[in-house]
Structures are given as C-alpha cells and as structure tokens.
Amino acid sequence: MSISNEHPYMSVTAASNDAHTENGIRRDYTGLREDAALIKTAGLTAWFGSMQALKGIDINIAAGKVTAIIGPSGCGKSTFIRCLNRMHEVVPGARVEGSIFYREHNVYAPNVNPVMLRRQIGMVFQKPNPFPMMSIKENVLAGLPLQGKNTTNRDEIAERALRQAALWDEVKDVLDKPGSSISGGQQQRLCIARALAIEPEILLMDEPCSALDPIATAKIEDLIHTLRQTITIIIVTHNMQQAARVSDYTAFFYMGELVEYSDTDTMFRAPHNSRTEDYITGRFG
Amino acid sequence: MKQQESHRSDFFFTPLDGKIEKAFRAIMALAVILPFLILIVLLVDTFVDGYPRLGWNFLTSFPSRFASSAGILSPLVGSIILMGLTALFAVPLGIGAAVYLEEYAPKNAITTFIELNIANLAGVPSIIYGLLGLGLFVRFMQMGRSLLAGAATLSLMALPMIIMAAREAIRTVPNDLREAAYALGADRWVTIRKVVLPLSLPGILTGIILSLARAIGETAPIITIGALTYVAFLPDSVTSSFTALPVQIFNWISRPQTDFHVNAAAGIIVLLVIMLAMNSIAIFLRFKLQRKIQ
Ligand SMILES: Nc1ncnc2c1ncn2[C@@H]1O[C@H](COP(=O)(O)OP(=O)(O)OP(=O)(O)O)[C@@H](O)[C@H]1O
Ligand SMILES: [Mg+2]
Description:
The structure holds 2 protein chains of 2 kinds. Chain A is an alpha/beta fold. Chain A is 33% helix and 24% strand. Mean pLDDT of chain A is 83; it is low at 1-31. Chain B has 12 helices and no strands. Helices cover 76% and strands 0% of the residues of chain B. Residues 77-78, 206 of chain A line the site of magnesium ion.
C-alpha cells in the first residue's frame, strides 16, 4: 500500500535542509518547503457555537512523516485534527473558517464530499471505540463495504490490517469474538487496524495511548514507527517523551493558536518560544 | 482541604437512626408486596372461575347464545390480525419518527414542542383515541367499522410509546460509535443502519412488544370505533367487520347469566397468557441481544 512515493509532494528530505527563519512567519518554522506539504492550512479557525477553539492556524503537514501535536488540555489539538477530515462539523453548532488544502483540493470546497475525504484521512480516537455488535474481523472490515470495495479477499485484508496493527498474533484465534471482548490496548490496535484496512493516505491519531499501559503504549509507538514508511501520521499526545520518540515534526498549540512548529529535535532541544519551553519542561500545562 | 471534604460528606451521609430505617424498610416492602398480593388474588380468582371452560373447543368455537358451547375463535383471530396490522403501521412510523428526532432533527423550539407532545400523547386516555379513530378513520376516511380502522386507531395509540422507547434506546448508543463510523467514511444513513439501529434494537423491540401487548388489551378504543360484539365468522379481508378479545370479554361480563361470566374469566386467561408471552419474549430478546452486544 505504498501510497505515492512518486508523488511530487514527497520530496521532504530535501526540504528539511531549509533553515528556520528566526522571526519569520510561523510556517517557516516547519523547515518544509511549501510544496512538500500534504496538508496546508491557512487561517484555519474553528468554532463551537460562539466559542472559538482555533484562531487562525497556518501549518504545513509533511507527507510521509509523523507530526506530533502537543499543548495543554483544551488548547484545540483535537479540534485541529478533527478539522482536517471534517469531523469537526459533526458536532452540532460547530463550524470552520479559513482553508485546508489536502494535496491540491480545498477540503472545505462545496464540491468536496466529507464522506469521501474521510476515506483518505483515517482517524483513531482517544478512547478505543470498536463496534460492540461486530466481531473482531467484522470490525477490521467495517470500513470496506462502506467504500463499495471488492470484498472477495476479506480474510486477506483483515489479516494484513491486523498484522500492520501488530495485533494479528494476539487475535488470530478469536477473530469471531466481539470487538469489545479484548483488552483496551488490543481494542485500540483493533481500531487502528480498522482505520488501516481502508488504506488511508493520512492517519489522524488523537491521544491514541492515553488509556493504555506502558506496554500497550510501546506497541503502538512501534507500530507508528513501522507505519511511517507508508502513511502520513498526525498524532496528538500529552506525553512529551512520546512526541520526541515517534515524531519527525512537532507543533505546539496554545489557546487555539499554533505557537511553534519545527522538526522534533529542534523543538525539544532548543525551542524558540518561551511558552513552548515552559510547556515542554513541564512548568505548566 | 481533603479533610474538610470528608467531614462534609460525613455530614451528608449520617446514617439514619436504626429504628427509623427499619420502619422505612417495612413500609417500602409493603409497597412492593401489597399490589403484588392483590394481583395474585385477582389472578387466582379468575383462574379458578375460568379454568373449567378452557380447552381446545373454547379456542376453536365461535361465540354462541349458549354459554357452554361458546368460544373465542373470532375475537382471538380478530385480536391477532389487529395486532399484526397495528405493528405493520406503527413500527415503521415509530422507528422512523424516533430516528428522525434523535439523528436528524435540529435541536430547536419546534423539535422540542414535538417531543413534548409525543410524551403528552402517550398519556392520553385510550377512549380519546377511540373517538379520534371513529371520526377520522371510520367516518371521514370511510374505512367503516373494519379491522383496518381498528388497527389504525390502535396504531395511533401505540405510536407515542414506540417512539419514546425507540428514542430512549437510540440515545443509549454512545456517540463514540457514530464518530467511529463517520471517520471510516460512512454517511449518516449508513451509520444509522449499521451502527445505531443494531445497537438500539433490543430496546426498540422491547418497546414495540410492550406497546403491542398494551394495544391488544385495549377495550375502549375498539368499542368506540364499533367492533361488533357478536361475530360468527372470520374476517376475510382487512375491511371486514370484526371483534376482539377484550370486546368479547366485556360483552360476556355484561350478561346477566353467570355461565357467561365463566366464559369471560376463561377469555381473560387467554388474553393474559398472550400478554405474558409477549412480555416474556420482550425480556428474552432484550437479554439475549444485550448479551450479544456486550
Ligand atoms: N463539543 C464541544 N462543544 C463546545 N466546546 C468544545 C467542544 N469540544 C471542545 N470544546 C472546547 O474547545 C476547546 C478545544 O478543545 P479540544 O478538544 O480541541 O482541546 P484539546 O487540546 O484536544 O484538549 P485535550 O488535551 O484535553 O483533549 C476547549 O476549550 C473545549 O472546551
Ligand atoms: Mg483532545
């Protein structure tokens, strides 16, 4: 399922040579050439009713990389990634302004069907949410009939997705048991397998490990390491070490704004902004 | 700070005085046992009265002028057809309304108004539905005193209950699962069909069965729209006139001859058995489906 190694946006490695401009616009912290981005947002603003959760986010997300989103609780991390696959608008009263480009498409253009978009941009939630009335296997395959995909090789697809999610060995004998009958960490990997089975180009992960123990967390981090070769990942996390371990780029959000965005090394070794530094070193948040 | 809080909770949860607690317990136990006892006495009385008349003949004979040879064939068939037709009308409408209200309707004043009134409708006395059915279905829509008119009337009566039970069941489906489906690229309709309805099915089914069980036991609306009290034929179409179990029982009870009272008691037993069976099915389904889900 190598997505698009041939795609022009994939020339990220060259891009990361670009120097950070000390006080340039935020986008320059990315160290990314603009044409290396798979997702670009401009003035992205999100609302819950009259409450503004995002205040003009400009960010470029690198193709084929892991981008971590960090920041204190309530700063808009979930809101941000939910804007990317248009899950934000599912909440009653929620709306979005500004623009998001996914490849050359404006995600919020009137002719974009959010349903189709979500098949390209998969999502894993904070709380594992397997479908309780479906078996493990049915859970993995749940996204397929929705896509009208040929489902003759269901077993194969299920096995591949479960292997990708590092869950196959643990569940291969209980594929017909309900999806909710396995442990929380296994359920989370099941949800990852379910998202991977439809072969998205981007995977959004909203604190995927926050409900898991260190062993399950380590498994998911390993998984991210493996997946990064084939898929672009954006992961929200409260765990600094995790962000440092798994990501190539890190974005620090604070009160609905993107405060700092750079490659993960720089972010954790020499943050530019004092608020970033305070947060990373645990002085607040 | 911690200590203060624990003090406060001590204050709120000071145990009741032992005697008062015992008295409370006795009163509450009585509140449970008393209605139960009354029900048992009624059931036993009915059973003793009606049992001698029960038998295959009673089920397969038409009503008759002679108490001993009279049966409940036509009212039994009438009731079953009524129930089937009522389910046919009320179930799709009820589930549809519930899905609309829970999953599609914007939360505004109109929706709130509709929701409030559905709750009110569930509390309207059944005879009012009978009068409505008489005016609307029998006369205005010219269905006559037919099974169709009866079922339409009972459907109106069962609808609010079905809608409320279905909404309740739909509301118990965690939002996480809807979001999971959306995130996989399901649209709203697919999400409802594949996630919301399967998960709320036990609750919806229970509501349907309980409201149908109530509908089959209703007498007032059926009498109001003009079910016949003596029917010696089986309905040949939904437009034929009919009778139903409660109507037949009511008829027998109002006769002066005590022999017919025995028939009424036997009829009540049959009706009770049907209702109990339906309730058991509801409980069974709920238990079984719920286990499958968890
Ligand atoms: N459904 C909602 N309705 C109204 N306001 C909301 C809703 N969800 C989030 N918010 C508000 O939007 C802001 C951003 O929330 P968001 O969930 O994006 O934060 P977050 O950074 O993901 O926090 P956490 O780390 O706690 O998950 C918060 O102030 C929150 O109170
Ligand atoms: Mg969040």
